[in-house]
Amino acid sequence: MRKGAMAVALMWAAGAAMAAGPDISVLARTCNNCHGVGGVSVGKSMPSIGGLPREYLATIMKQWKYDERGAATMNRIVKGLSDDEINALAVHFAKQPWVPAPQGVSAAMLKKGKAVISENCEDCHGATGGDPDEDAPKINGQWAKYMELELEKYRDEEFAMPHRKMKKTARKMKPADVPAAAQYFGAQGK
Q1: C-alpha–C-alpha distance, residues 33 and 42, integer Å
Q2: pLDDT tier at 81, thresholds 50, 70, 90
Q3: Contact, 127 vs 140, CB < 8 A?
Q4: Which residue has the higher pLDDT, 132 or 145?
């Protein structure tokens, strides 16, 4: 009789765990291989994702999964994930703290970058990148090299980037504006 009660208890516990959603810790650890522990990247061309908005993270991963957004590797990585796993990963990384990467920039580039973002980026990303609109990620202290690479994707008409406003804005920027904007936002620690 005890074995029967134990089996029922184990089945109930397993059912409760499944109802709570997938255990995302293993998948999150695989993300840490590129995006850093807790989503805090240490690689200049790899974005930090910890602390970004849940909806933004889920949307961008689903865009990669369904080939709506181009990427060198992320399309292949998320193909095997269910939408529930993607949503759980988004929740996990959104709960992590946002940790800006300390980056230096020259006074001249900072001044040029401020002018560029005032004209092109501030409406959506805020004056420092730390107070973005609802559908935009934080970019204050995001790696400047990564942001420059992303802006170049938006500027390339052949690259699949679904955000129309970003495409329009990036394509009207002069080539020299791209690193200036990226370095300005990258240097913002708060």
Answers
A1: 10
A2: very high
A3: no
A4: 145
* Number of Cβ atoms within 10 Å of the Cβ of 20: 8
Matching residue, tokens 């089996």? 7
pLDDT band at 131; cut points 50, 70, 90: confident
Hey, do 23-94 and 107-186 end up sharing a CATH topology, with the first three levels equal? yes
Helical segments of the chain, H only: 2-19, 25-35, 54-65, 74-79, 83-94, 107-120, 122-125, 144-155, 164-172, 177-186
Q: Give me the pLDDT at residue 21, please.
A: 58
CATH 1.10.10.10 fits 107-186, yes or no: no
Give every CB contact of residue 132 below 8 A, 6+ residues apart in sequence. Answer: 124, 125, 126, 138, 139
For 23-94, which CATH class?
mainly alpha
Place of tokens 């002018």: 115
Helix 164-172 / helix 144-155 crossing angle, nearest 10 deg: 100
Give the pLDDT confidence score for residue 22 in this predicted structure.
60
Alpha-carbon gap, residue 153 to 67, rounded angstroms: 15
Domains of the chain by residue range: 23-94, 107-186
